[in-house]
Structure prediction request, 254 residues.
Amino acid sequence: MIGIFFGLLFAVFLNQVLSNSELNDWGWKLGYIFLIISSLLIYFILTIKSKDIKVTVIDRNSFLEGYNLTFFSKIFFENIFALVPWMFIFLFCFNLWLPGVVLSKNMFFSEIQFVHIIFIFIGSIFLNFVFELVGREKVLQYFSFFTIVLSIIFFIFIDFSSNYSINLLLFFLAVISSISIPLLYNNFKKVNIRTNISNIYFVTNSIFFIISLLLPLTIYYFMFNAIMYKMIYFLISIVFILSLLSKKINTKQQ
Prediction:
């Protein structure tokens, strides 16, 4: 999350300082230079600190032996809400150039501001400490329940005829994102890492794999079809219903 935040901060800085022509000519190279320098810096820091770091080498065969499809499915669907914050953040990355491509009726994502990302970043840090005190089990159930209720209410009653409704939608997505990220982190912390590290590995990569499929499909849809903003609330409710049901089923099976 910290890496994504500072990467977005650097991208916003480049867009403010350089013009479009400068970015197309040579400005885009600065991103790779920044990535190389930061990677080398981290490498040397880890090299210096390596004496204090205990590394456990896991054999490839034993790593794959820990993979269990049933356990993977349980973790994945219980944490499927992680799709919401990452989709929201990645759509923000496209809001500078997509308005010239997509339909004018689909311009809601261009209203996503960097302040929303800052809100997610700060909120995630603060809420992580709250989750440690309250307990993830209660947070997951209450958070999922209230998100479903609010999403259904907004889906039925909100009229998207003004900018206020768009601002409410973006704020709602930012709040959900700020809660979802630390909740995902706390869920993974409670899993037995030694015996199920492969499951966590596959779940994390599966979430990003699905996003890599959803993003181009979503953008392609925006290019030719007008989106119904109400459907965003509906989809959010479906995601959290799946998460809540998965949690209930997993609890009964234990």
Observations:
- The chain has two domains: 1-55, 60-249.
- The two ends are 32 Å apart (CA to CA).
- Residues 54 and 92 are 38 Å apart (CA to CA).
- The mean pLDDT is 78.
